[in-house]
Amino acid sequence: MEHTLRAYDEELDAITAQLARMGGLAEAEVADSVRAIVKRDVKLAESVIGGDAKLDATELEIERKAIRLIALRQPVADDLRRIVGAMKISTNLERCGDLAKNIAKRALVIADSDPVTPLTGSIEGMGELVIGRLKDVLDALGARDVDRAVAVWSQDHEVDEHYDAIFRELLTYMMADPRTITACAHLLFVAKNLERIGDHATNIAEILHYEITGVELTEDRPKSDALEAYGR
């Protein structure tokens, strides 16, 4: 029995460790995609695009191990929530990788356009905020810290507010100078992808909260006033 329990713990720890590595990969991909936009770095953008396959493969591996563990060990209560939570979190991290790849693809186009430096600076600021949120929730995951997870969840509106400000700024530039429309349109997609990465960080916080406490966060997520006006 002791051997069986030790093997079970080792399998569970292996999933946790792989999830932590996946989180590090996703965080690096997002950071590199934003850097590729700001620096107009084509090689870095191409590296992000090529690296997405590793995140996809890691998600599938975590899912495979989790399903096997559930089938063979039939975990209950805390352990079952931990395993199912790992699968859900890996899915959110994989989506962060997809969105980073989308940003990197925009970086390739933007690199061929005339620089729009003030707007690029705004994107960089939003990127730093989103990367910070992702790092915070991954730190909460590693420490299994409910309070830190809730802190990420409660600050979701800050990312929304940045997106709203960039949206208005981009529209102003496009109306003032039609020559900026192409670059601004791509930057708008970049901002939207960053906003969605922020949403995935918040998703992870909610999953972690339920995984540890067994209680769902049932309140509506905090949203910016502008986004509430659009019914979001």
Model description:
The chain is mainly α and 232 residues long. The chain has a single domain (2-229), classed as Methane Monooxygenase Hydroxylase, Chain G, domain 1. 86% of the residues lie in helices and 0% in strands.
Please outline what is shown here.
Helix content is 86%, strand content 0%. The protein has 232 residues and is mostly helical. The longest helix has 38 residues, at 2-39.
Structural features:
mainly alpha, Methane Monooxygenase Hydroxylase, Chain G, domain 1, 232 residues, elongated
Reported for the largest beta sheet, the result is: none
* Cα distance spanning the termini: 52 Å
Percent of residues in helices comes to over 70%
Number of domains: 1
* Global outline: elongated
CATH architect. name: Up-down Bundle
CATH class: Mainly Alpha
Along the chain, the helix and strand elements come as: HHHHHHHH
Number of helices: 8
Structural class of the secondary structure composition?
A: mainly alpha
Average pLDDT score: 89
CATH superfamily: Phosphate transport system protein phou homolog 2, domain 2
SS strand fraction: under 5%
CATH fold label? Methane Monooxygenase Hydroxylase, Chain G, domain 1
Tell me the total number of β-strands.
0
Low-confidence stretches: none
Q: Rg from C-alpha positions?
A: 19 Å
